[in-house]
Amino acid sequence: MSFENALLDGIEQIVDHLTAHTWNSIIPAFLITGAIAVFLFKDAVLKYFSSSTNRFVSYTIASVSGVILAVCSCVIIPLFAGIRRRGAGIGPATTFLYSGPAINIMALAFRGGVLVSGQPFAYEKLRSMVEERIGRK
Questions:
Q1: What is the full DSSP assignment across 35-56?
Q2: Which of 1, 104, 127, 135 is the most buried (most CB within 10 A)?
Q3: Residue 89 class from Cβ within 10 Å (0-12 exposed, 13-18 middle, 19+ buried)?
Q4: CA–CA separation, 87 and 82 (whole Å)
Q5: How far apart are alpha carbons 61 and 46 in whole angstroms?
Q6: Is this model's pTM higher than 0.70 or not?
Q7: Which residues are within 8 A (CB) of 62 and not within 5 positions of it... i.e. 6 or more apart?
Q8: 63-91 pLDDT, tens per residue?
């Protein structure tokens, strides 16, 4: 295989990968963001995510609302922009941005499968995450 053929094959693989992810994830994310902008009333966003809301309530709702979304980190950005544009505070919106991909149903299923399989690195990672969170106040 020549260098040119390898290069063309690599470019073809990149285009195939980007095309598949664009149709399967990015476009639905933009549609969901548009639906948030059109159908979600500003009062609903401000009720839970504004700076005047109790911090505990707004951060808790922002951190667990990613469970119902099975999205990756590239898809959560338009959703973050949508709720931010509707008036959410930067703190709850950023919490949603970071927690959404980490706690979605697919990520939880994968982590559970790794933990059940008995991989020692998974237990070490879980232990270090818990210790880090406990250490911060």
A1: HHHHHS-HHHHHHHHSTTS-HH
A2: 104
A3: buried
A4: 9
A5: 12
A6: no
A7: 48, 49, 92, 93, 95, 96, 99
A8: 888 777 767 777 788 888 888 888 888 98
CA distances from 51 to 10, 36, 54, 82 (A): 48, 19, 8, 17
Identify whether the C-beta of residue 71 lies closer than 8 Å to the C-beta of residue 96: no
> Which amino acid belongs to residue 105?
I
Q: Which amino acid is residue 135, in one-letter code?
A: G
Q: What are the angstrom distances between the C-alpha of 94 and each of 2, 9, 97, 124?
A: 47, 39, 5, 27
The helix/strand/coil state of 60 is: helix
Structure tokens at 133: 């969170």
Q: What is the three-class DSSP state of 71?
A: coil
The two three-digit tokens of residue 7, written as one number: 């290069």
Six token digits for residue 3: 């260098």
- Amino acid in the structure at residue 84: R
